[in-house]
Specification:
This protein has 206 residues and is mainly alpha-helical. It is built from eight helices and four strands; from the N terminus they run αβαβββαααααα. Helices cover 59% and strands 10% of the residues.
């Protein structure tokens, strides 16, 4: 993926003073990660059948411009990283919902611990190959997007399901790679541009 980014960036105009728009950058990229959906139906109003259409949210932002190829490349990498790890974060959210619902139905702590162990083993088996393919930046972004999707940091989720000892172990492990499982998502601050990209990816606009 890095090779693709470099190749596309090298194809951008060479003039140092020429600005590059986000639209120009995105035009070089792949198709949307999430396909836009359209729902068509009918409602009865005063005896008349009226057809309606529901579509994904469409977000309109001020146009981004980049002063040089380096800035354009950074934006392109952000978009590509979001497109790669956002589906994983959404899968984590769904697993959290399903696991929580099932745990509430189990009769005792022993049954809950056994189920959590099975879930943990399944996560390692399913996601370890995917995680090994993520870059350092993608891994840090995934931690933040899990917080966005689940409204809880990765550390808090591990602590809730597996206990503080395991949570502490994985936090130390993350520190070894310069990351933190306690990192929170800030859509109005430092992660403002990321939130813009995430929303447009979710809506199928990019």
């Amino acid at each position: 993926m890095t090779i693709i980014v470099v190749m596309i960036v090298l194809c951008l105009p060479l003039q140092a003073q020429e600005t590059i728009t986000a639209e120009q950058v995105l035009a070089e990229m792949d198709s949307p990660t999430f396909v836009p959906t359209v729902k068509v139906g009918k409602v009865l109003h005063d005896g008349d059948s009226i057809q309606y259409m529901e579509m994904n949210n469409v977000y309109v932002y001020p146009q981004l411009t980049f002063k040089n190829k380096k800035q354009a490349g950074q934006y392109m990498r952000l978009v590509q990283n979001v497109k790669k790890v956002l589906p994983i974060a959404k899968e984590a959210r769904q697993m959290l919902i399903e696991t929580t619902e099932l745990l509430d139905m189990l009769p005792d702590e022993k049954a809950k611990e056994e189920h959590i162990k099975r879930v943990e083993d399944d996560i390692f088996r399913t996601y370890k190959p995917k995680m090994k393919k993520l870059t350092y930046s993608q891994g840090k972004l995934l931690i933040k997007l899990i917080d966005r999707e689940c409204h809880s940091s990765s550390y808090d989720m591990i602590k809730a399901f597996m206990g503080p000892i395991r949570a502490g172990f994985w936090q130390v492990f993350a520190w070894g790679f310069g990351a933190s499982l306690k990192k929170e998502y800030d859509p109005e601050g430092v992660d403002r541009l990321t939130e813009r990209v995430v929303r447009m990816v979710e809506s199928g606009q990019i």
